[in-house]
Automatic annotation (TrEMBL):
Residues 349-620 form the Protein kinase domain. CDD domains: PKc. Pfam families: Pkinase. GO terms for cellular component: cytoplasm. InterPro entries: Kinase-like_dom_sf (IPR011009), Prot_kinase_dom (IPR000719), Ser/Thr_kinase_AS (IPR008271). PANTHER family: MAP/MICROTUBULE AFFINITY-REGULATING KINASE (PTHR24346), MATERNAL EMBRYONIC LEUCINE ZIPPER KINASE (PTHR24346:SF30). GO terms for biological process: intracellular signal transduction. This is Kinase-like protein. Keywords: ATP-binding, Kinase, Nucleotide-binding, Transferase. Gene3D superfamilies: Transferase(Phosphotransferase) domain 1.
């Protein structure tokens, strides 16, 4: 098998690089789809400024819009607009059926201009699609919200718009997010060919398991409205992704809303005119609503209610058979690019001298690295003592970590865990230690560069891979505990994944890293004091300030990570018992938690009944 990250490095620096080189085991059709789904921005600095000029061949029909200019409304009756877009626009404006006999509707009608342009009035005996909650939302816009409009915060507008969608459509197939990240991760690339990951974040959104359907931003910087451009770029990527998941002739139209600095809601329709044949994404501004005028604010809410009614039909247009294909390609992309996608402090154009302060910014450290044959790369954000590097002679990409001499217990543990005897044990998931050498009184340790483990990873894992990673995590921690080592800082940041490719599969191996807080214990009953780790990833006994058993404390974060991974287990007879294991590991009373050995035994019992549902696999 070929290590993906080595292959990727070699091909990246070859003038003859092609997608076929990078993904040698994929069929031509797979490669075509993968290229369509990868949203690569070729200039990092322009991406940071959300400069739309770089997208002239991908995003069209946006006119002269820049970060500080308002859009021109596009006439949707133009012959250049596809019929499916015109039909969608008409559905947003369709009349809603209201009960004329209700007092709430009567009071609302008295405040409106031309109410019959929006409502078809019937009596109570007829079918209506406007309930009292919807009328209450409209009345809120007219009565309560508008007088305070000039002091409204972005969060309040996000809440209001999201509540409209949620109240009008409580379908569990959809998620309604506020100030959240939707997936998948986008890929951006600088002028030197280095890749970075970018997690799209929206002030509010509506999404389903196939991707986002509505995106929204609220202006937070009146001097430079970059939110609009960010929304365009993210919506273009999202449109391409969700269109790939659609049935034939069921092209998607994403709805996007930007609330600008003048409290106007700009409504955009994002679509691909010819999704089956090219990548072009068109963005048109279909309306602008002045939210300081009650009637226009109502019209926006009215269209959002109509949009919510269309969500089930939009969901029916997805091809469920394509979901597994997307998951397989996303995982392949993840593990092919992720070794070069870790978030760093250094911008792609920065020089060594411009790096953030830290041990690797010292000339003596950089000189020592060069003396040992390493070329220093970018420094990890929030970890200034950890950096990427390239072993020049072998062209191997690695991670280097500077450990203070007073903390050399970490090196001792890693050397022990990497001994020949320890490495022969397949349950040893400690990160391999490639090299150790001294700089003055400090030490440098060298380890392989691997892919990041994140909580959102479960959204792209197939069931077999997720279960195997759970098992590897339990085996790895059980191995440490068997040798009386408590890690004391288990969390997703300290789990990495190595990837191998072959037979058109991605094979994944889990490693545990960062033993800076680890303890070698004398007995399994040893008690320690003092906070270790971070608050979100430690059990209650660690934060209570009492003495505790660090072996028991390790169990709590393992349970939390298992709970996250279990979301990828589609088989209910598997997902529920694995979730029960996670819950048991997170019990508030430490000595009531099952040991890692016991958790592994329970997983063994479940593994025999697991159905194989995917093509991305974990080794072991």
């Amino acid at each position: 098998m070929q290590e993906i990250y080595s292959l990727w490095y070699e091909r990246r620096h070859s003038s003859s690089q092609t997608w076929t080189h990078v993904f040698p085991d994929f069929l031509p059709e797979d490669l075509k789809n993968l290229k369509r789904l990868t949203f690569c921005v070729t200039t990092f600095e322009k991406w940071a400024r959300f400069d739309l000029s770089m997208q002239k061949n991908i995003i069209t029909n946006i006119g002269s819009i820049t970060t500080n200019e308002k859009p021109n409304i596009t006439a949707l009756h133009s012959p250049d607009i596809p019929n499916f877009v015109k039909e969608f626009s008409a559905k947003l404006k369709r009349k809603r059926v209201a009960d004329i006999t209700t007092p709430k509707y009567t009071r609302l009608k008295a405040r409106m201009v031309n109410p019959l342009d929006f409502f078809e009035e019937v009596d109570a005996s007829s079918n209506v699609d406007v309930d009292e909650l919807e009328i209450l939302q409209y009345s809120t816009v007219f009565i309560l919200f508008l007088p305070r409009l000039k002091t409204v915060t972005p969060n309040l507008w996000s809440d209001m718009i999201t509540n409209i969608i949620t109240c009008s459509n409580r379908n569990p197939a959809f998620t309604y997010g506020r100030k959240a990240t939707w997936i998948p991760t986008l890929i951006i690339k600088n002028d030197t060919g280095d890749f970075r990951k970018y997690h799209p974040t929206s002030d509010f959104y509506v999404a389903c398991q196939y991707g986002p359907l509505l995106l929204g931003e609220v202006c937070s910087d009146k001097g430079n409205e970059v939110g609009r451009c960010r929304m365009f770029l993210q919506a273009a990527a999202a449109c391409r992704i969700v269109n790939f998941m659609r049935k034939p002739d069921r092209n998607i139209i994403l709805l996007a809303i930007y609330v600008n600095k003048d409290f106007e809601a700009e409504q955009y329709l994002i679509f691909q005119p010819n999704a089956a044949t090219d990548l072009e994404v068109t963005i048109v501004c279909s309306a602008v609503f002045d939210l300081s005028i009650g009637q226009q604010a109502f019209e926006l809410c009215f269209q959002l209610y109509n949009y919510a009614q269309e969500l089930p039909a939009i969901f029916d247009g997805f091809d469920i058979a394509k979901k597994d294909t997307l998951a397989r390609m996303q995982m392949t992309l993840w593990f092919t690019l992720m070794p070069s996608l870790t978030t760093v402090t250094q911008s792609p154009s920065s020089s060594a001298s411009a790096r953030a302060p830290g041990p690797f910014s010292e000339p003596s450290t950089q000189a020592a690295l060069q003396q040992h044959g390493y070329q220093l790369g970018a420094i990890f954000r929030h970890r200034p003592h950890v950096a990427r590097a390239l072993q020049v002679k072998s062209a191997t990409r690695v991670v280097v970590k500077l450990v203070k001499g007073t903390q050399s217990g970490e090196i001792s543990l890693l050397r022990m865990l990497n001994s020949n005897e320890m490495r022969r044990d397949e349950s040893n998931h400690t990160i391999p230690l490639l090299e150790v050498w001294a700089i003055d009184s400090d030490l440098i340790l060298v380890t392989p560069r691997c892919a990041a483990f994140t909580e959102s990873l479960s959204l792209w894992l197939d069931q077999a891979t997720a279960f195997a990673l759970i098992r590897q995590l339990v085996d790895g921690v059980a191995f440490l505990h068997r040798h009386l080592i408590a890690h004391c800082d288990l969390k997703p940041d300290n789990i990495v994944l190595a990837a191998l490719t072959g037979d058109r599969h991605v094979h994944i191996w889990l490693y545990i890293i960062d033993f800076g807080l680890a303890r070698q214990l004398s007995t399994g009953d040893e008690i320690i004091q003092g906070f270790r780790g971070i608050k979100q990833w430690v059990g209650p006994e660690v934060t209570d300030g009492v003495s505790y058993n660090p072996i028991f404390a390790d169990l709590w974060p393992v349970g939390k990570m298992i709970r996250s991974l279990s979301r990828a287990l589609k088989q209910q007879t598997l997902r529920q018992p694995v979730g029960d294991i996670a819950t048991a590991l997170m019990l508030p009373t430490p000595n009531e938690r099952p040991s890692m050995r016991e958790a592994g035994r329970r997983l063994d019992e479940l593994q025999g009944g697991m159905q194989d549902t995917g093509s991305v696999n974990a080794a072991g």
